[in-house]
Design goal:
By secondary structure, this protein is an alpha/beta fold. The protein contains seven helices and five strands. It is globular and about 35 Å long.
């Protein structure tokens, strides 16, 4: 299986101080060698933007997070025009543009988006609430 991590799961798995927030089902998937784990350039972008806005839940260094994710064997997923066009096919269940592009990426690439956001998981197919 191939899984795309939502931004908060990526942060929680990367930051030892926040690692306790990572739900056990997510940890099981991430640590399963049979699973491919991906993170999106959109998540790095989201961290940069929300960190600049002073959001306390985005205090992780995005450069260190990215390098750590790559060193851990996670694959980086760039944002393509096909992904952005897929955003236009999503119903307006969620307003956050970063979450919407993650959902679109999962749909476009045949991935399952792992999330701890019940609103994101309301998109059903290609999402899994953990």
């Amino acid at each position: 299986m191939r899984y795309l991590l939502d931004t908060h799961l990526l942060i929680w798995v990367a930051d030892k101080d926040l690692n306790a927030f990572l739900p056990p089902p997510a940890r099981d998937i991430i640590e399963d060698d049979a699973c491919d784990v991906l993170f999106s350039a959109a998540s790095i972008w989201e961290i940069v933007i929300k960190q600049a806005l002073g959001r306390p839940d985005f205090r992780i260094d995005p450069t260190v997070l990215r390098l750590g994710a790559l060193a851990s064997g996670y694959q980086e997923l760039p944002i393509t025009s096909a992904h952005t066009l897929e955003v236009g096919n999503l119903p307006p269940l969620h307003r956050d543009p970063f979450d919407r592009v993650l959902i679109a990426q999962a749909r476009s690439e045949g991935l399952t988006l792992l999330t701890h956001d019940p609103t994101v998981s309301a998109y059903g197919a290609n999402t899994r609430y953990v």
